[in-house]
Amino acid sequence: MSKKAVFFDLDNTLYDYSSYYAGVLKKVGQYLSAKCHVSRRKVYLVGMKLLREKTSRYPRLFNELLKALNVPESEVSTCLNIFDGFSGKIKPYDDVIPVLKILKNAGVVLGIITDGNPRRQSRKIKSLNLSKFFDVIVFSYELGRAKPSKEPYEYALKVTKASQAYYVGDDPRFDFKGAKEVGMTTIRILRGEFVNVNSNKYVDYEIRGLHEVVRLVLGGGREKQ
Fold this sequence. Notes:
Blueprint (H helix, E strand, L loop, with lengths): L3 E5 L8 H20 L3 H15 L6 H9 L6 H10 L10 H10 L3 E6 L3 H11 L7 E4 H4 L7 H10 L3 E6 L7 H5 L3 E5 L15 E3 L3 H8 L7
Parallel strand pairs: 1-2, 1-4, 2-3, 4-5, 5-6
Helix pairs in contact: 1-2, 2-3, 5-10
């Protein structure tokens, strides 16, 4: 009998990243208000606007934020420390826990494959209260190769010994190439900040809710797009 596994991206797949960044901006606003006499509301509004325009993949978000606020760039390091250390409460999308329970009860191996600072990503998973559902959590930075490299996906397969594996993510530019290279079926969920990014040849299915993952993995799924 084949051993099925479903691996998930974290940011924008299991929860709304903008909610996390909003919490970070509130902390940054508190700091800049006290240190540089900048309006907390302005920090928040400008920061969220930059996130929408540049996306979370942009490495100089805080540089751009400080520039727009006329704050010395020397404050970037403190802003990044606030970002890396943020431990505010976030919640999963409404369909996440019900779907994880169904898959878990059906004997499907569950995992997360995520980029980003491992300590920061670990705190997110803890805040989301999702650790109990997952058999393996792969932090690509610990392997030295982030997405779209195939190494994190290879490692996930090696650890779980799955013979049939799926990967669910949101960003077609990074999430699926490595997964396809190691033989995973790829599922793009159309939500989050990259929902309007064009798809590509590495995406097998596009879905609008995680309940469609249940149909694809456990049976009764639709034809490949």
